[in-house]
Amino acid sequence: MAHALAKLAPENLALEIIEIGQLPLYNPDIDGEDAPEAFKGFRQRVRQTDGLLFLTPEYNRSVPGSLKNALDVGSRPYGQSVWAGKPGAVISISPGSLGAFGANHHLRQALVFLDVPAMAQPEAYIGGAAELFDDAGALVNEGTKEFMTKYMNAFEAWVHTNR
């Protein structure tokens, strides 16, 4: 979905995918001046953004552990959160019919605490994900493509207004 959104984004909105799978589990005992390079690089990349577009699946009615870990890494050291004040938006995607509704709302709750003003409308709960893409990963469902184009235009306006 992230690659499909990059193709649907308005011309003045540049998207960069920040991978989170390589981040070690957050542990305050290894943070600080000698923090892992993965922490430092991740924090720097997030700091350089004007806005944050979170894409999440749902595991057990919540966000995956890797996403929660990334939120923790970015929120520390205390008082130096890379999230604070950055406008954000949430898209949840699932093979199921609920479109990862639980994960979407859990993430939004965490973003409130992290001081990320999240775009309220439109909301994006993308269900039936397996039927939306072709074998090459291209978004082929025209209704979803139209909705996501509108979503990306709204996100661009949200970032522009709130950065």
TrEMBL record:
GO terms for cellular component: cytosol. InterPro entries: Flavoprotein-like_sf, FMN_Rdtase-like_dom, NAD(P)H-dep_reductase. One of its GO terms (molecular function) is oxidoreductase activity. Transmembrane segments: none annotated. This is ACP phosphodiesterase. It comes from Bradymonas sediminis.
